[in-house]
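Problem: given the chain below (372 residues), write out its structure.
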Amino acid sequence: MIRRHAWAQTRGRMTVASLLGGLALMLASASAAEASVNPKFWGVHYRSSDNLRWDVQRMDQGKVGTVRLALSWPQVERSLGHFDWWVPDRIIGALTSRGITVLPYVYGSPAYAADEPTTPPLDSDIVRWEWKEFLRRAVDRYGPGGYYWRAGGPYHSRYGAGAPEGPIRAWQIWNEPNLYNYFTPRPSASKYATLLRISHDAIKSQDPHAKIVLAGMPGLIGLTTGLRFLDDLYKQGIKRDFDVAALHPYSETMREFSYQMNQYRSVMRRYVDGQTPLWITEMGWGSERPDGHLNVGLRGQKRMLRNSFKLILHNRKRWRIGRVIWFEWRDPPRDIPDHGGCSFCLSSGLFRYALKPKPAWGVYQHFTGALP
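Solution.
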């Protein structure tokens, strides 16, 4: 989720070919590509779980394939050595029981590990060990063969012996480390590379086949753009520490969206990593009154979803896109203070907080195949 809107002044130059090609593809029919995508391809970001049963039922009806959510270390281990998995158990179980894949991003530091939740747990060997222990326990619980899925375990005790299992096989490490709001005291490619490396080793020690997903980063927003940050990360030698790259291509226009996708891929190719899959783990627009940035109104949100999804489908193989996560499922409550100046975050949901669908929801269902 973006909390800053200091758009980079230097966009770089787009080639005429990429501009015209991207726009032409946007206008073409998407039906053939839609029919061939993986059922997990279209997803949503989810955080307001106060109406969990209703949300999951509607997701199931709308054929949402993947749900991205935070797996918060300070929420699970509020005090050192005491793990409480009740909240993630509840959400992961409800989604899995409907056949929806869960993509967690592991994030946050408890008070005994860092001064701020947004500070990565790197300041001492002890703190690093505690982070790795949290990850190992998470994989032991939710990964293949994990305690949560075993006969007589929490999942089947609640949903029955025949309920479909959904062990977590992909883990995203942190969130938007190129923004000050999520990586304090300041973004650092060197520190994030260290966090990625120790997280990779901890997760793979429990599940060698797990996929490690790079933190999603806004490509053009903030003082440290995702494009530059990715380049700096590769210079840290991280290519073997992740299996899937990620991008949050928040954009005012389809040209800007296409530019970010092309440039992100260009950086990957520069480091001989062009075959690695790329997931869009956040994208979206707000439905509030148009403000010239990411708030585009109700009709604008519907239009931007349609145009961006068409663009993604027609470039899917060239960009090697494996997942597309809309930010977000439902608007958050208006009275929570945790928005950090993000103008569109209050209205980017496909539903209003009071559960009323927006026009964009119908278009979203067309792409998932829930509607003709």
